[in-house]
Amino acid sequence: MSSPNEHRLPFEAPIYEMEARLSEMEANYAKNRGASDSSVIAEQVRRLRRELANLKRTIYANLEPWQTVQVSRHQNRPQTRDYLDLIFDQFVELHGDRAIGDDKAIVTGLAHLGDERVMFIGHQKGKNLAERTACNFGCAHPEGYRKALVKMRMAAKFRMPIITFIDTPGAYPGIAAEERGQAAIIAENLREMSQINTPIICVVIGEGGSGGALGIGIGDRLAMLEHAYYSVISPEGCATILWKSSEHAPKAAAALKMTSRDLLRFGVIDDVVAEPLGGAHRDPREAAASLKTFLLHALRALADLPRGELLQRRYDKFRRMGQFLEGASTPNEPPKPASGTQNSPG
Q1: Cα distance between residue 281 and residue 19, in whole Å
Q2: Where are the beta strands (DSSP E) in 191-297?
Q3: Considering the chain, what percentage of its residues have pLDDT values greater than 70?
Q4: Which H or E run includes 298?
Q5: For 279-294, what is each residue's pLDDT tens digit?
Q6: What is the per-residue pLDDT for 225?
């Protein structure tokens, strides 16, 4: 994986400046080790390291929503195949949807997580131009979602938990995908995942955009990495619709409430998985270790639930999301909020 210095985000400029100073000071210490003033230099190095950690913590604790989107798209941010190598053992990839072909934008296969055998499904964007072109930049075709559904049914048959990693700006929007039933297969996945009789854990590891994310995003536990986003539409798409220009993407990102903190507060997600200081792109191994800890804990929590209770909890979880107003209000009586578990008369 290339150095994060090669793809600098604008708001990270103070971090890179301090890292350059630290590198220079460390080189000076290595050169003068054993000299009379080496202990002074060593103390300066330790102090600067503490200052650097505090600076990263301060910047990343106060990211604007658009800055979070930039981090989620960072060129060096670990992707699905990176996490497969760092988290899982004995991964055996399974290809094809038994109908059209093998969509490289979605990776499926059998893997071991600790002592548990699992079915893994995740979006893959690709690292270089050739890979990204082959993966459609993480935008899956209908055959990708059909491939995922076939593997989920296999997992249910053999009573294996399902783990999905979400990282896509959205489903592929081309004419061919629409002709092959893009919306229909995503809708079928939503229905089937709500009823599949085995534990499902979903994690947004980068971008979680639109129906493309939802197509593998219905589960018993839904988590996000700290600096990922999850939204009904990309900020650029929202800005183009509302303000007729993608230049307003930062404003749209703020309005969409798409960050992990917002979605945890709204009850849309269940957990936020902490990232290393400065984001997952700075330390993929630490990010993978945190993610693995979460997955093992979530699997243990779901393993002993009776299947009927598991499905009922999954149903109740999604029915609780959101609020709406029910019925007509009178001039003297304000409308009463109703929970999402009630049916609208419309």
Answers
A1: 15
A2: 200-209, 221-225, 229-231, 271-273
A3: 90
A4: helix 284-303
A5: 999 999 999 999 999 9
A6: 97
